[in-house]
Amino acid sequence: SQPSQALVDSGYTEIVGTAKKDTTLVNKLVNGSSFKIAMSYYNPVDTLILHYSMIARPDTVYVSHTSYTHVETPECGAYRFHTLTGIRSTDRGIDHIEIINPTVNYEGADNIKIYFNNFAE
Q1: Which pTM was predicted?
Q2: Regarding beta strands 94-99 and 78-89, do their DSSP bridges make them parallel or antiparallel, or are they unpaired?
Q3: Concatenated DSSP letters for 58-107?
Q4: Quick one: pLDDT at residue 11?
Q5: With contact defined as beta carbons under 8 Å apart, do 33 and 114 qualify?
Q6: Phi/psi of residue 74, each to 5°?
Q7: 19: left (phi over 0), alpha (psi -120 to 50) or beta
Q8: Nearest residue to 29 (alpha-carbon basis) of 63, 53, 59
Q9: What is the pLDDT of residues 4-63, one digit of tens each?
């Protein structure tokens, strides 16, 4: 697989086929009220799978987004920012889910709020 010329022109050296196989793992988050994970540069939808200790089947969350390059100064290089465009999930442990801030950048603001069913706590 050859790198996309547009990506090479933008300064990326990773092959798109490799970048699409990214995985982030948050292992055994207990009594957590929040977590931060990286978003895909190339896939328009990220998939999160939430396993619970008290529910047999996991929930799946689908986060749709667009991505764009952000450059503050040429010396600092480029960052990848995202705009959340949609979210949906299964409802085994999740009551409902919403986007509270669609702009994902390095500011560290909360972007998604997940409301769990009482039995998922």
Answers
A1: 0.73
A2: unpaired
A3: -EEEEEEEEEEEEES-GGG-EEEEEEEEEEEE--SSEEEEEES--EESTT
A4: 54
A5: no
A6: -60, -30
A7: alpha
A8: 53
A9: 566 556 555 444 444 455 666 677 787 888 888 888 887 899 999 998 888 889 999 999
